[in-house]
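Notebook entry, structure prediction.
Reason for the run: the old model in the group folder had no record of what sequence produced it. Starting over properly, with the input documented here first.
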Amino acid sequence: MAKAAQVQPLIGVYPGTFDPITLGHLDIIRRATKVVDHLIVAVARNAGKGPLFATDERVELVQQELDALLQQDDSNGARLEVLAFDNLLMHFCQSVGARIIVRGLRAVSDFEYEFQMAGMNARLDPKIETVFLMASERQQFISSRFVKEIGQLGGDVSSFVTPAVRERLESKFSRGKK
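New structure, fully documented this time:
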């Protein structure tokens, strides 16, 4: 009797700066768990973007949010993991055995950049596919950049981030005012 071939879990990578992680990011994460068996949320060490939160803080915030998803049993059975990376995305994907890159699209303005990026990545490694998930209508306009701007100017960000992230933002901005 022939032995059945072992099916490898489908590993996906959802890369970003997550500075900070928003409800839009969490929406994409929840929906990506319907597509992959193991989702790695890859936090980019992108010092060139001048992040508000250090890489270890962003990893910690993402981990807290992933833990909350798992507690709510909202991961569709997928394994969730957060890792920082500072190399070429395709090299990172290869190192973790990912076959899928998950990208979220909010608006037409995102499409051109993401389309170019997907094309470049396909040239670097055609075995890794990019999958686009459209932001849900409630999350289409949320961006980390706007959340930081609103928070820094004393606005209410509670409809864009979780309470834990809101507290961290408020703490970060109140320290800067002293």
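Summary: The mean pLDDT is 90.
The old model has been moved to the deprecated folder.
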